Amino acid sequence: MMSLVKRNVKLYFKDKGMFLTSLITPLILLVLYGTFLSSTYESMFRDSLSIFNASDSLIKGCVASELVSSLLAVSCITVAFCSNLIMVQDKANGIRMDLDVTPIKKSTLALSYAIATFISTVLINFIAALICLGYIKYMGWYLETMDVIYIFLDVVVLVLFGTILSSCITFPLSTQGQASAVGTIVSAGYGFICGAYMPISQFSDTVQKIILCLPGTYGTSMIRNHFFAGVFREMSSLKYPNELIVALKESVDCHLYFGNTLIEVPVMAIIMVVTILILVVIYICLNRLKKV
User: Fold this and answer.
1) Is pTM, for the whole model, over 0.85?
2) I want to staple 254 with a disulfide (CB 3.0 to 4.6 A). Which of 123, 138, 166, 249 is the partner?
3) 26 contacts 39 by C-beta, under 8 angstroms
4) 287 has which bridge partners?
């Protein structure tokens, strides 16, 4: 198991094109978000807080929290799909066929791919998270130590979700073309269906109901709550009306409602964990049903 995990991780980082693409993608997204979306979000927060003469630091802290939470929510999933290409490459190059005729158990092979994907993805996203925290420090820092710890825990949970989701989706693929097509679709569409690129409140009622049935939505909201925790505490300490703070939380999807019920952050975490366990069962079934 350990030899296979090391082999898969080394292959991933040895492929400079794949590794650099995975590492640079979050940085490119941060630059693009900061360049094209920051002014839009800044105008939105300034309009909302105009009557309170909110400081530039507070407003920029809100903007930075919105941008980096969206970035990490997406990159934890998309990078996992890039990392999991090793499994598809082995099939395309005939290596998996050689491994299947060895005494190595199918379960060991399947688990080695998943563990290697998790390790590669979490390393890249931890680096991305540190860069994002540096960006928040530059824009406006209101986070506490526990907030930072929760953010890294959120990254771990999202990477686990991305790892097992990508393992299930890429399992039947056997060519590089198929893997590239799936990766492109996920990269283009996931940010919209998880509420990262656009607040859920901007969608129609029907689309909102569909999005609220997807677990990725709760992963995005979970990490967004922890990034925004500091600025909302600052607003409370400045005696901003609670109604305004609640409205802001709803506008940035920190507050999600299923029907008329508010979904708390611990419930979001439970939803993510249960989803991961369900996907693990699906991945095990896929491997057991596979014909050697």
Assistant:
1) yes
2) 249
3) no
4) none
